[in-house]
């Protein structure tokens, strides 16, 4: 088995494991917003209990997603250094946008979400939950845009030749709205929301069966 095949297998395992977690953070984010909103509106402690419970699960899933994502980022350089250099200008733009507009937003509110219970007003905590949810949605946009560009590239030209060739953006919005990006983002969003809903249903069904 050659090195390229081994690199493909390693990256396939890494990204397959990593991709379990980001969609769940999106789906659970929405469920937490729903539970917390109902609690603030009705003052029913049941929904506060649900929101607190799923916040703990969210924190665990978010942490695993970040760690596995970092491993995947390293593999871009260790396994696919030449390809990373070739698409660096395109990927760099998408990932920079994700870091500035999405991950920063998510991280800013995450501390309040996890540690703000009983320390801030309920509506402030709800805003932090909404901020984390929106941040996860925006993160998905830019990651999927980068992936979509690989499948249906647009808004770029190739500079240089041979090993020194690299892709250079000629139109940022053409790159963002490449032929498959909208379909893929929509697919990921809907899939993530369904995944979050089904994991909540599954866990609640288990507790009901156990009479808890």
Descriptive account of the structure:
Helix content is 81%, strand content 4%. It is mainly α and 212 residues long. It has one domain (3-209). It has a two-stranded antiparallel sheet. It is elongated and about 65 Å long. The model has no long low-confidence stretch (mean pLDDT 91). This is Cytochrome d ubiquinol oxidase subunit I.
Strand order of the largest sheet: 1-2
In total, the number of strands is 2
Distance between the termini: 51 Å
Parts with pLDDT < 50 across at least 5 consecutive residues: none
Main sheet overview: 2 strands, antiparallel
Strand percentage lies at under 5%
Morphology: elongated
In helices, the fraction of residues equals over 70%
Mean of the pLDDT scores? 91
Main structural class: mainly alpha
- Helix count from the secondary structure assignment: 7
Radius of gyration: 20 Å
H/E topology pattern? HHHHHEEHH
The domain tally reads: 1
């Amino acid at each position: 088995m050659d090195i390229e095949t081994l690199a493909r297998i390693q990256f396939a395992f890494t990204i397959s494991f990593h991709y379990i977690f980001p969609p769940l953070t999106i789906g659970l984010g929405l469920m937490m917003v729903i539970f917390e909103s109902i609690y603030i509106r009705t003052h029913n402690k049941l929904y506060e209990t649900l929101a607190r419970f799923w916040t703990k699960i969210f924190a665990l899933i978010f942490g695993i997603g970040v760690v596995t994502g970092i491993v995947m980022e390293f593999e871009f350089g260790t396994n696919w250094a030449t390809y990373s250099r070739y698409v660096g200008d395109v990927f760099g733009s998408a990932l920079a946008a994700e870091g500035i507009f999405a991950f920063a937003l998510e991280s800013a509110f995450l501390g309040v979400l996890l540690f703000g219970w009983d320390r801030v007003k309920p509506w402030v905590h709800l805003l932090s939950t909404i901020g984390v949810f929106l941040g996860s949605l925006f993160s998905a946009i830019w990651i999927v845009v980068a992936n979509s560009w690989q499948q249906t590239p647009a808004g770029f030209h190739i500079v240089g030749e041979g090993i020194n060739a690299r892709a250079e953006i000629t139109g940022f919005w053409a790159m963002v709205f490449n032929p498959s990006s909208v379909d893929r983002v929509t697919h990921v969003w809907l899939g993530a929301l369904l995944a979050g809903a089904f994991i909540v249903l599954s866990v609640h069904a288990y507790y009901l069966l156990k009479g808890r």
